[in-house]
Amino acid sequence: MSDGSHSFLILPGLGNSGPDHWQSVWEAELPRARRIDLGLWDRPVGEAWVERAAAAIEDNPGAVLIGHSLGAVLVTLVAAARPDLDIGGALLVAPADVESSARTPDFLRAFAPIPDQPLPFPAVVVASRNDPYMNFARARDLAGAWGADLVDAGPAGHINVASGYGPWPEGRRLLGRLTPRRVPVLAEQQASRRV
């Protein structure tokens, strides 16, 4: 089990998150945050990504996972494959529909099916009304199946740099929902800046 302190593991989607993406900004700002190097960013292999993510979680028990797009789906795949892992919570932003989106490349279908059982940790799903990679109704249904809180982001595209999301302070506030029994995320950040 976790020792009560928390760390953050960042799981980007296809192509990794560039330097201006909110995941990269958070990685630089949050103490004890690190990106999982999933490898093969432009042509990911589902099984390899699940194994690498599980290994990183084993090394960081109790971590809060921060997944975007394919990285959000990966969190659910890891939870289904490895229910023994100690995961403190998950922020799942703009999950990509690897099953039914017309925009899904064939090689990403290896990440299907998306698990539809409850997650054994607290989770928040942030979904957009006009995400080209996931229909809002489908995101709502998945959040319900996962037992996750759903945040309707409105017409926010894919909640990435192309949609106008850089540091994304609202997302940081949502992340705070997942760490209520630990040091609040924003207070911890401010303390680290004073040092």
TrEMBL record:
Organism from which the protein derives: Oleomonas cavernae
InterPro entries on file: AB_hydrolase_fold, RBBP9/YdeN
Name by which UniProt lists this protein: Alpha/beta hydrolase
Upper classification of the organism: Bacteria, Pseudomonadati, Pseudomonadota, Alphaproteobacteria, Acetobacterales
Alphabetic keyword roster: Hydrolase
GO function terms (MF aspect): hydrolase activity
